[in-house]
Amino acid sequence: MEAIYNTNCAVELEAAALGSFVARTDFVTVYGLTIEEVPQPTPSEVGIINVTGCCAFADGISAGLCVMMVGCGPGGQILWACCLRAHPHGKGPQTMLESLLVPSEDLGKTQRVVVRVSGVRLSNENAAVSRVDVHSPHPR
Predict the structure, then answer these.
(1) Which terminus of the chain has a smaller tally of CB atoms within 10 A, N or C?
(2) Residue ranges per domain, the chain?
(3) HSE of 26 in the Cβ direction (CA atoms, 13 Å)?
(4) What would the DSSP string read from start to end of 25-65?
């Protein structure tokens, strides 16, 4: 799925389709989003979910990126939420990671993920900001 920018809608995806989500602008590409449940010794009251993603910024820009994600269960209830952040440093793709502590009974229940990508590209002229948000043709 390729996202179109300059709106303020979130995209809701099946959890299994998260890895195929790609959002592009003229200054950053977001891709490779994953959620991974980390096995814990039993019994455990706390579970760990690692949320990762990759991004690639255009060379020589000043920018910031925020990928907000919310994991939803079978009835649409919110199970977890996080924010992956990045800004340009060095060359090549960057990996974003957030580790979440969740109740162990919530592990294995994430069916849908709501994603919103927001970023700013700072202009060298008067520090102007150009904001972008992801859009889905099927807003929730």
Answers:
(1) C
(2) 2-135
(3) 6
(4) -SSEEEEEEEEEEEP-PSS-SEEEEEEEEEEEEPTT-EEEE
CATH architecture for the domain at 2-135: Sandwich (2.60)
Cβ atoms < 10 Å from Cβ of 31: 16
Highest mean pLDDT among 16-25, 35-44, 99-108, 115-124: 99-108
Task: Kindly report the pTM of this predicted structure.
Answer: 0.80
Tens of pLDDT, residues 51-69: 999 999 988 788 888 999 9
List, in order, residues 6 or more apart from 5 with CB less than 8 Å away: 23, 25, 132, 133, 134, 135
Whether omega before 41 lies within 30 degrees of 0, making that bond cis, reads no
Work out the mean pLDDT of the chain and round it to a whole number. Answer: 82
